[in-house]
């Protein structure tokens, strides 16, 4: 008995088993009430479990179908063509009938109470069918493994011949025994010259470089679609600065007194003013005129008059009672308020400002 006949018999057996299981399941649903269905034990609905089992079974059927088709193709090298074709068609038709009948039975069950209830008998019927299908797959895999070695050898030989033909066409090398046909009438102390043609692969590569150069010229010089080197450099630098600013904004902990920069844009100054009015004005008064803390608008400074010094004073605090705000504000907010302080207009004593403190800088 060959593989095709065994596949047909296995298919018919599965169809019979599936049909009888559905009949028994329907009778059990009508006559008996189960205590705890399997789908309830698995925490699934009956429809969900039915769908999962059906899809898994159909996938196994597809694998069997595919492996049976592959086995049929392998047996072409070993069986009579007419006989093989006849039996192979029967096997494929039988497998298709199994898949179609399973789908039809599942659809019929969906319209009845059996699909909704999905009794345990149907579940175990699916399990039995899946086990049988897996056994058929293993059996077919063994046949394929035992028969495919000859085909692999033939295919390797065929691919090697195709490779040799392709390499010969790309090199146009003249065999040694035929070199006399391209021998030139040049003889230098016994050294002769052959009139070999340039290899096609070399000529094709040269033609590609010409086309590339023409396209490059029109792309950059004529139509000016792409940026030249200088414009490309400037664009990349601008993109890099933008990405760095975005990264710093997302990681304020990276800003320190060594790399802090003076912010001058309106949004940053507005943010700094808002922070100042909320957290700094109680000591330095409105506009930085000075109160409990020194005047921040004049040219006299206690700890530093540049952005790095002001940032450090706000962040680390000072011995005169200035709090260390680094534990209460992120570094980007300290940078914003320091930048705001750096641009405050001068408020003299006559205008209500506090008298100067520190050194003139």
What's a concise summary of this model?
This protein is mainly α and 361 residues long.
Helix content: 55-70%
How many strand units? 4
State the helix count: 12
**Bulk shape:** flat
Order of the strands making up the biggest sheet: 1-2
Our measurement of the CA-to-CA distance between the termini, rounded to an integer number of angstroms, reads 106 Å
In angstroms, what is the radius of gyration?
Answer: 43 Å
| Low-confidence runs | 25-34, 84-116
**Number of domain modules:** 3
Mean pLDDT reading = 77
Q: Indicate the proportion of strand residues.
A: under 5%
Query: Which structural class fits the helix and strand makeup?
Result: mainly alpha
Along the chain, the helix and strand elements come as HHHHHHEEHHHHEHHE
Biggest beta-sheet profile: 2 strands, antiparallel
Task: Give your account of this protein's structure.
The protein is mostly helical and 361 residues long. The chain has three domains: 163 residues; 55 residues, no CATH class; 95 residues, Cytochrome Bc1 Complex, Chain D, domain 2. The chain contains twelve helices and four strands, in the order H-H-H-H-H-H-E-E-H-H-H-H-E-H-H-E. The strands form two sheets. The chain has a two-stranded antiparallel ribbon with strand order 1-2. The protein has a two-stranded antiparallel sheet with strand order 3-4. Strand 1 and strand 2 form a beta hairpin.
Keywords:
361 residues; Cytochrome Bc1 Complex, Chain D, domain 2; two-stranded antiparallel sheet; 4% strand; flat
Task: Describe the SSE topology.
Blueprint: H1 3-31, H2 38-41, H3 46-74, H4 81-110, H5 113-117, H6 120-171, E1 183-188, E2 191-194, H7 200-222, H8 229-250, H9 266-279, H10 281-284, E3 300-301, H11 307-316, H12 331-342, E4 359-360
Antiparallel strand pairs: 1-2, 3-4
Helix pairs in contact: 1-4, 1-6, 3-4, 3-6, 9-12, 11-12
